[in-house]
Amino acid sequence: MNFFDRIMNNKVLITCFAAWFAAQLLKIILTFYSSKKLDLTRFVGSGGMPSSHTSFVMALSTSVGKLYGWDSAIFALALCFAFVVMYDAAGVRRAAGNQARVLNIIIEDLAHNKPIANERLKELIGHTPKEVLAGALLGILIANLMVR
């Protein structure tokens, strides 16, 4: 069996990417539902509902737990990794998004008084706790559907 065949037969990896894909697709659907505009850039964008990073790592840890045992060291490693990613998504990246929002307000205020570069910073880089929870539940669901 060649390398590509081995990758394509890796249940854990395929499940992780399926969870990521589902989360990104849901971002497009939910954005369309709320704004009535089709924004295909949401498929590759960060931030928003649900967290695809969280879906990815929770599918990873759930798949590993189901395949290798909930008491295995590899499950503990995957779950700890998932917690770090979720903390980063809801904490550090969200704080960076809040800073971007404040800087954008400052830029707009300054723009009214004198000409400056009207460059906007990306605000949607982190997640609310609700978005992280939704991503976690989606990852767990996808893993339970795909890994037997």
Helix-strand blueprint:
Elements: H1 3-8, H2 11-35, H3 52-68, H4 73-113, H5 129-146
Helix pairs in contact: 2-3, 2-5, 3-4, 3-5
> Average pLDDT, to the nearest integer?
85
The overall strand count is 0
SS summary, helix count: 5
Shape: elongated
Structural class: mainly alpha
Q: Strand portion, in percent? A: under 5%
Helix content: over 70%
Report the uncertain regions. Answer: none
How far is it from the N-terminal to the C-terminal residue, by CA? Answer: 22 Å
| Element order: H for helix, E for strand | HHHHH
Largest sheet: none
Radius of gyration: 19 Å
Quaternary state of this entry equals single chain
Please give a quick description of this structure:
This protein is mainly alpha-helical and 148 residues long. It has helices spanning 3-8, 11-35, 52-68, 73-113, 129-146.
